[in-house]
Amino acid sequence: MSSSSPGHVTLVGAGPGDPELLTLKAVRAIQAASVILVDDLVGDGVLAHARPDARITYVGKRGGCQSTPQATIEQLMLQAALAGENVVRLKGGDPFIFGRGGEEVDSLRRAGIEPVIVNGITAGLAALSSLGAPLTHRDHAQGVVFVTGHPQKDGPGVDWARLAESARELRLTLVIYMGISSAARIQAGLLTALPADTPVAVIERASLPAQRQCVTRLGDLLVDLRQCGLGSPAVVVVGDVVRGVAAAHQHQHLLSTA
Asked: Active site residue: 77, 91, 94, 178, which one?
């Protein structure tokens, strides 16, 4: 197809990893795509829905690993769309929760292309749900905050002490993405306003067969992370909603698969 007949772009959330958690709309978009740009954490089970002749390009973006520059990803999307392709930008979780989907939408709109957005289940929700606990609870948490533990380069980062004050005063659950490498700083900041016995759940590779998790307390977080050997990708959930999980397992570490 010529550039006079442009294609279109769909930003698709692949969910936390389990292909059975894909939405029907996501499956249809993947099946229809001629070009798929895939994030690092999207599993093969998700890509099994792609048609055999689809051109699949891996553009992994993951903390601590070599990543495809964001500008390159946006250029690839734009070039394929202007060439008349049906492009799917396939992201782990949800495109608009720490997926840089907003940046990609802005880039496409500047070029005159209005993308379609297909939401996915974000890892922060899937992670605690896999342990049978909610993010909000009428008796324990009146709201939830999704926050990144991996600040933008040269950026100010999160004021963990102020966030802890808000969490205590407003009874909020904190869901921290990409926080393992910054666990010491996060723990120190949160302990300025939250008690050391605040329950914490750390879930690695949520929803996948290799999922592992550790339920602990805020004061023991660093020690237990080292003991459990959990690493990225993982979600850290802080708040009273975790108490039910901790009580059910008598405050023991959970290292089996979900």
From this structure: 178
**Of 217, 150, 157, 158, nearest to 179 (Cα)?**
150
Which tens digit of pLDDT belongs to each residue from 44-80? Answer: 899 999 999 999 999 976 554 567 899 999 999 999 9
Question: Which one from 39, 77, 91, 94 is the annotated catalytic residue?
Answer: 39
Domain span at residue 194 reads: 123-248
Of the residues 102, 118, 134, the one at which a domain ends: 118
CATH code of the domain in which 96 resides: 3.40.1010.10
- The tokens describing 175, both together, are 């869901």
Number of domains in the chain: 2
Active-site annotation holder among 18, 61, 77, 91: 61
Query: Is 61 among the catalytic positions?
Result: yes
Q: What is the pLDDT of residues 153-188, one digit of tens each?
A: 777 789 999 999 999 999 999 999 999 999 999 999
Cα-flanking dihedrals φ and ψ of residue 70, to 5°?
Answer: -60, -40
Q: How far is CA 191 from CA 132, 166, 181, 197, 248, in A?
A: 26, 13, 17, 10, 25
* 258 and 131 Cβ atoms separated by less than 8 Å: yes
Rounded Cα distance between 125 and 145, Å, is 11
255 within domain boundaries: no
Q: Tokens 């899937």 appear where?
A: 126
3-state secondary structure of 114: coil
Predicted confidence (pLDDT) per residue in 78-118, tens digit: 999 999 999 999 999 999 999 899 999 999 999 999 999 99
Known catalytic residue at 77: no
Question: Does any domain span residue 254?
Answer: no
